Structure formats: C-alpha cells, structure tokens
C-alpha cells in the first residue's frame, strides 16, 4: 500500500487509508518535502510524523491522528482535516486555505504565524494554544461552536470570521477589531473586552445582560441603541 510513496516526493491520487500507519510514517519521514495531491490518508495514525514544508493539495485527512506532528511551513489547499487530532502539533508558518477542519483538535498546538483562510472550523478545539507571542490568522473562517476559552487574542484583527455559539469565555479580546464578524450566541463570559471594536460585528440578540458582558468595548450608535432598548430605555 505504501508503494505510491516509494517514488516520491510528489504523489498523486494515492489511497493509503488501509495502509499500515507505521509504514506510512516511516515512508513520509524519509525525503521530502512531500507534495501530496488528491491523496487519501483518512483516519491513519501519523502521530509525530515530520511533514515540514509539505504541500497537501485536496487531500482527505479526515480523522487523521497528527498528535505532536511537525508541520512547519505546510501548505494545505482544500481537502479535509475534519475530526483530525492535531494535539501538540507544530504548525509554525503553515498556511491552510479552504480546508475543512470541523471538529479538529488543535489543543496545545503551536500556531505561530499560522494562517487559516476561508476554512471551515466549526466545533474546532483551539484551547491551550502555545507560542502566541506572534499571532495566527483566521480570515474568512467559520469558527461557529469552536472552543477558544481563555484564548489570548489581544490586538487581533478578525475579518469575516463567524464565531456564532463559540466559547470565548475568559478570552483576552482587548483592542481586538472585529470586521464583518458574527458573535451571535457567543459565550463571552468573563472575557476582557476593553477597547475591543465591535462596530463591525453582528452581536445577535441583545439582552439586559449584554451591557455587563460588553463592558469596555466600542460599539456603534445603532448597537448602543439596541442595548438601551434591551434595558427598557426609550431612545429618541
């Protein structure tokens, strides 16, 4: 099953889903950087594999285990990492474009200078992220239902990000700018929002609890009027 990897580093249309995971890890650990196009590696245990600089073009990696994997500089273009386990993986300088990372586990992952663009990340777990001295990018992504509790996002600029029903409890969102973002049903309990610019965000339903949750944030005149109405105040 690993014959397709014997003549690398560019592999097209290989189905490795029934291959021996250890043989695949060994093969991928030699040579490279790999270019895998339209390949299937779904549900394989590739924990600890070194894919530095690899290109994964429209590959099916749904449910793959990449715990502790080295993915520095990886380029992921389309394809699926839905349900993938990337716990403690190193994705420094990686770029993921148009990929499906729904329900992916990125717990403790190193995301320094990592870019997620137009990715589907519904229900992804991004807790306990490491090395946030340099922030990663999540432009145009859906992070609905994602877990970002206690995330350090101070000063970020988020554009076209759907955070509906996401868990941002305890997150540091000071001075963060939300442009064309959705915060409908987002859990912002105990989040720090001083200086956060929410004028470009859809705040969803405004309730009497909203003012306390958004304390210190910057809102538009229209949003402020909605908050006043939720408090039973008459806006003239």
Topology:
Blueprint: H1 3-6, E1 10-12, H2 21-28, E2 35-37, E3 55-57, E4 75-77, E5 95-97, E6 115-117, E7 137-139, E8 157-159, E9 177-182, E10 197-202, H3 210-213, H4 221-230
Parallel strand pairs: 1-2, 2-3, 3-4, 4-5, 5-6, 6-7, 8-9, 9-10
Verbal overview:
This protein has 236 residues and is α/β, with parallel strands linked by helices. The protein has 2 domains: 1-136, E3 ubiquitin-protein ligase SopA (Pectate Lyase C-like), CATH 2.160.20; 148-236, Pectate Lyase C-like, CATH 2.160.20.80. The protein contains 4 helices and 10 strands; from the N terminus they run αβαβββββββββαα. The protein has helices at 3-6, 21-28, 210-213, 221-230, and strands at residues 10-12, 35-37, 55-57, 75-77, 95-97, 115-117, 137-139, 157-159, 177-182, 197-202. Strands 1-2-3-4-5-6-7 form a 7-stranded parallel sheet, with no helix packed on it. Strand 1 (10-12), helix 2 and strand 2 (35-37) form a beta-alpha-beta unit. It starts with a helix and ends in a 6-residue tail after the last helix. It comes from Actinomycetospora lemnae.
Given the structure, what is the number of helices? 4
Looking at the structure, the CATH topology of the largest domain is Pectate Lyase C-like
Q: pLDDT below 50 for ≥5 consecutive residues: which ranges?
A: none
**CATH level-four homologous superfamily name of the largest domain:** E3 ubiquitin-protein ligase SopA
Biggest sheet descriptor: 7 strands, parallel
Annotation, overall tally of beta strands? 10
Query: Which sequence of strands runs across the widest sheet?
Result: 1-2-3-4-5-6-7
The N- and C-terminal alpha carbons lie at a distance of 72 Å
CATH class division of the largest domain: Mainly Beta
Any idea what the radius of gyration is?
Answer: 20 Å
The portion of residues assigned to helices is 10-25%
Estimate the mean pLDDT confidence: 92
Strand content: 15-25%
